[in-house]
Amino acid sequence: IPIEEDGSLGKIKELKFISGNGGPGYISHPHQVCQDRSGKWLLVPSQGRLQGVGKITVFRIDSEHGNLKETSMVKGRSGSEPRHCVLHPNNRFCYCLNEKDSTVACYYFDEDSVTVFGLDQENGHMTYLQNIKTKGEQPRFITINPDGTMLLAANELTDTICCMDIDPKTGLLAYSGTEIAAESPVCVVFKTK
After folding, report:
1. What pLDDT is stored for residue 73 in this prediction?
2. Residue 27: beta bridge partners?
3. How many CB atoms lie within 10 A of CB 144?
4. For a Cys-Cys bond, which of 34, 86, 99, 167 suits 43, CB 3.0-4.6 Å?
């Protein structure tokens, strides 16, 4: 809804539906909208109820044109029913209150970075190792080259592919010094033969 020059609200410009399970007409039930501290992102926690999905949907705010673009989504635990979110003052941690199972979930809010986790080979548990910026906005796709030595992150909104070396012993990432100019990249594939 646009804000007019006199401060009043204009007519509805755009209406977004939060999809559910089962195709057209099946919706999830949003309970809040939460803008991040940069003013670029809008988080919408939604309950699933009968035909929806308990999830948090993230929209990019296009202030220039007054539009929202869905960029990502994370599902809550089964039966948890996400209801309200709040962002830490550092804008990196998002806490979500889950109504049905009386829990709080913590998420990393890092739209423009890649996070590395170590895996315990015995029990499969994950351990946080690193979070590194992709030197651009909205990394829509990440991939690893065929020999496993490099990670590439496609920054859709800033038209670059950021290349990072992978340490073969630790799995940690380091900038390779190579950035590839690309027009709104959303996928990277390698020719292997």
Report:
1. 86
2. 19
3. 14
4. 34
C-alpha closest to that of 169 among 149, 147, 187, 139: 149
Instruction: Report the percentage of the chain scoring pLDDT > 70.
Output: 98
**In this structure, what token pair is assigned to residue 86?**
């709040």
Three-class SS string for the chain? CCECCCCCECCCCCCCCCECCCCCCCECEECCCEECCCCCEEEEEEECCCCCCCEEEEEEEECCCCEEEEEEEEECCCCCCEEEEEECCCCCEEEEEECCCCEEEEEECCCCEEEEEEECCCCCCEEEEEEEECCCCCEEEEEECCCCCEEEEEECCCCEEEEEEECCCCCCEEEEEEEEECCCCCCCCCCCC
Residue count (the chain): 193
Q: Is 86 left (phi over 0), alpha (psi -120 to 50) or beta?
A: beta
What residues in the chain have per-residue pLDDT under 50?
none
Using the structure block, give the residue that is written with the tokens 């920054």: 155
Instruction: Tell me which long-range contacts 90-93 makes (C-beta under 8 A, separation of at least 24).
Output: 91/36, 91/37, 91/38
Distance, in Å, from the CA atom of 89 to the CA atom of 31, rounded to the nearest integer, reads 22
User: Which pLDDT belongs to residue 112?
Assistant: 83
The predicted model scores a pTM of: 0.63
Cα distance between residue 39 and residue 54, in whole Å: 24
